[in-house]
Structures are given as C-alpha cells and as structure tokens.
Amino acid sequence: QREAIGSDFDALIAADQRIEPRDAMPDTYRETLIRQIAQHAHSEIIGMQPEGNWITRAPSLRRKAILIAKVQDEAGHGLYLYSAAETLGVDRQELLDRLHDGKQKYSSIFNYPTLTWADCGAIGWLVDGAAIMNQVPLCRCSYGPYARAMIRVCKEESFHQRQGFEILWTLMRGTEAQQAMAQDAADRWWWPALAMFGPPDTGEAAKGGHTEQSMAWGIKRFSNDDLRQKFVDMMVPQAEKLGIVLPDPHLRWNEERGHYDFGEIDWDEFWQVLRGDGPCNAERIEHRRRAHDEGAWVREAANAYAAKQTIRENE
Ligand code: ACO
C-alpha cells in the first residue's frame, strides 16, 4: 500500500498538480509543511508586535488608522496559516505551545526593535517587500490550502509595502531631521531584511537545509539566494527614487550577471538571533505568552458559544 501512496503522490508532484488534505502524502512532506506553515503563522502573529508598538504614537489619525488595519491584517494572516496547518492534522494549540516553549521558530526579522516612527516605514518597505518576494512563489506551492491562503496574504502584503514606501517618501521630503530618521531606519533594517530569506544555498550553512527537498516537492519554487538576489534587484531602484542610500559599499550593478552585486551578510548575527539571542527575542516571547494567557477568557467564551449553538442546532 505504501508504494501505491508513493506513486500517486509522485505522479501529482511530477504533473505539478496540487496535493489536497485528503490525498495520501509521505510523512516527511507533511512534516516539512507543518514546520514551514507553523513558522510562517508564528511570524505573522509575532510580527504584530514591532509595529503594534507604534499604534499609540502614530503621527496622525490617518497614519494610526492605516497602522491598526495593517497590524490587524497580520493577525488575519496568522489565522489563515494556522488553519492551513490544521488541514495537515496538527492542532493549533499544540503549535502555539511549541512557539511559546521555543520549540518552533518564527522569522529572525521580528527580533529587532522599532526605535522611531521611520521604522514603521522601513518595515513596510523592506520587510514586507521581502515577504512578498518570498510569498508570491508560495501561491504556486504544491500543497493546496497553503497556496490558496497565500493569494490573499500577498494582496494585503503589497498594500503594506506601498504604505511603508509612502511613509519613507513623506519623511524624505520633510525636514533634515525627518530625512535622517528615514535613512537611519533603512540603515538598521536593510541587512536583517536580506537575512530574512534564510541561509545561503552553498557552503557550511547549506548543510542540513531543506531547500533541495522542498524544491523537488514544489513547496519552494526558488532557492533562498535566488529570492534574495531578486529582492536586491527590485529594491535598489526604489531606494534611488526615495533618495535613501542603502548601507552597502559593495552594492553595484554587474553588467555581466545582469544583477546587482552586494556585500557579505553577517551570518553569525543571523544564527545568534535564531538561537534566541537577538535584541528582542525574550521580550517578543514574553509578550506573546502574556497576550495568550490574557486571551484565555475569549477562547473560553467562543467555545461556550459554539457548544450552545451545536446544542440548539440538534434540538
Ligand atoms: N528566520 C528564522 N529561521 C529561519 C529563517 C529566518 N529568516 N530562514 C531560515 N530559517 C531556518 C529554517 O526554518 C530552518 O530551520 P529548521 O530546520 O529548524 O526548521 C533553517 O533556518 C534552515 O533554513 P532553510 O533550509 O532555508 O529552511 P526553509 O526551506 O524552511 O526556508 C524560508 C526558509 C525561506 C523562510 C521558508 O520557510 C519560507 O519560505 N517560509 C514561509 C515564509 C515565512 O515564513 N515568512 C516569515 C516572515 S514574512 C512575514 O511574516 C511578514
């Protein structure tokens, strides 16, 4: 029977068809998806914190309304993604427990602080820009529920990126102090945004990585380095339009390759953040645990309501 499962699954993957929850799939495919989708969901809800920090201090009513909507969108993305993970037979509570116990990761990028209002612009422009670059190909992921969730997520992310660009655009046309604030935010977020794409495809760091297998299964469509390069190529002209100087002396157009060359990413810092030693790791998890505990009554009320509805429907 195992062979039959294998051949159906392999045929669907070879034909670039979608795998659906009811289809038989190898355990390793299921585990890889649970790992990636859970990490993605955790990133969305932890990602609410850095910008949530500025909701009370947004510089105008318009900016505040946009920021609230954006942070709420991120909560929504987390919910679609937890639902997609649940179709693989894992329980949402179990995933949250793994996040709270530090057993499952979330994106490195959300362990950096938002020191000024310009950081909300830099997050929208750079972090959401990187997220789109990484997530548009996931709309073609071989696992149906994940791919479909990504379509709406990507539409919302592109709005997020434009609002970030517009914050920086406004600051760069403001006073000298505002321009300096925008430049400083870009200086601090550029390198962590490049690291977001994950470890390089070659060398020591690539050993034990998942890219090769995930590409063979049609989960990932591009390697980490390929997406990082596409991101750099997209962002350099945008930085020029903004009048922001990207903090990399090695950044230059390479005519032969048809791409921008760029400098070395500090991978020691990346692994340090993944180990839990980034600037805000402890604060992010502590806040998340507290929010979860304080929300217990909402979950209890929702369950009690659902139970009452079920009794009524069966009467
Ligand atoms: N932050 C934290 N961990 C990371 C990051 C990162 N930026 N990049 C890679 N890793 C981890 C991987 O999870 C893996 O760890 P594990 O084996 O313990 O699970 C390890 O580093 C090796 O990396 P890869 O082999 O490249 O792992 P993978 O094939 O899963 O690729 C990637 C990583 C590109 C992030 C992929 O999982 C992905 O596309 N995920 C969906 C998108 C996502 O999660 N985005 C989150 C940020 S965007 C946002 O929320 C706005």
From TrEMBL:
It comes from Terrabacter tumescens. InterPro entries: Aromatic_CoA_ox/epox (IPR052703), Ferritin-like (IPR012347), Ferritin-like_SF (IPR009078), PaaA (IPR011881), PaaA_PaaC (IPR007814). This is Phenylacetate-CoA oxygenase subunit PaaA. Pfam families: PaaA_PaaC (PF05138).
